[in-house]
Amino acid sequence: MTHHPLKKHIEEIIKLTDEEFEFILSHFETTNKRKHQYLLQDGEIADKEYWIVKGCLKSYFFDESGKEHILQFGMENWWITDYESFVKQSKSKINIDCIEDCELLYITFENREKLTKEMHKMERFWAKKSKFGRIALQNRILSLLKNSTKERYELLLEQYPKLFHRVPKKLIASYLGVSRETLSRLYS
C-alpha cells in the first residue's frame, strides 16, 4: 500500500504507517462515474466527500435565468462535495457532475466523523485541507473582484495549464464569469 495515490496525497501533510493508511482506506469506497453523470444534484443532501483518483468534474449552480455558474473544477488529487450540505447535512445548493469519466474514492459523512474521532492525524489532515480550501476560495473571490477577464484567464492558465486541455472553453468562460463570446474575442 505504500504507493497508493491517496496515501501519497495524505502524506503531503501528515506521515502515516502502512497500518494507519490501511485503517484510513477502510473508511473509503471506490466508485466510477461516466462523463455527464451526477455525483450530487441541487436539493439532495451531500452525504459523501469525493477524492478524485482520475478524471475531471465541475461543481456549479444555475441562476434564476438559467445561466450556469461554475464554482469549482476538480481534477486528480482534489476533493469535491457541497461542503455546506456535507457539514450541515442540509440540502445542497449546487450540482456536481463529471466532465470526463471518473474514478473516485469517497468517504461518507458518518465515516469521516468516525475516522476523525478515532484518528487525530486525520483530523489534522482535514483541518489543514480546509484551511487551504479557504485560502483558494479567498484568492478566487479577490481575483473576481479585482482582476480583468484577461488577468483571470491568464492566472487560471498559469495555475492549472492541464485544465485547458480537458475542459471546453464554454465551461472556462462560465468559471471566469464571462460569456463564451467574450472569451473568444479575447483569445482568438
From TrEMBL:
**Top-level division of the source organism's lineage:** Bacteria
The chain's coiled-coil residues are none
Concerning Pfam families, the annotation shows: cNMP_binding
Q: Which InterPro entries match?
A: cNMP-bd_dom, cNMP-bd_dom_sf, RmlC-like_jellyroll
- Which residue ranges does the record assign to the Cyclic nucleotide-binding domain? 34-115
Can you say what this protein is called? Answer: Crp/Fnr family transcriptional regulator
Species:
Flaviramulus aquimarinus
Q: What is the lineage of its organism?
A: Bacteria, Pseudomonadati, Bacteroidota, Flavobacteriia, Flavobacteriales
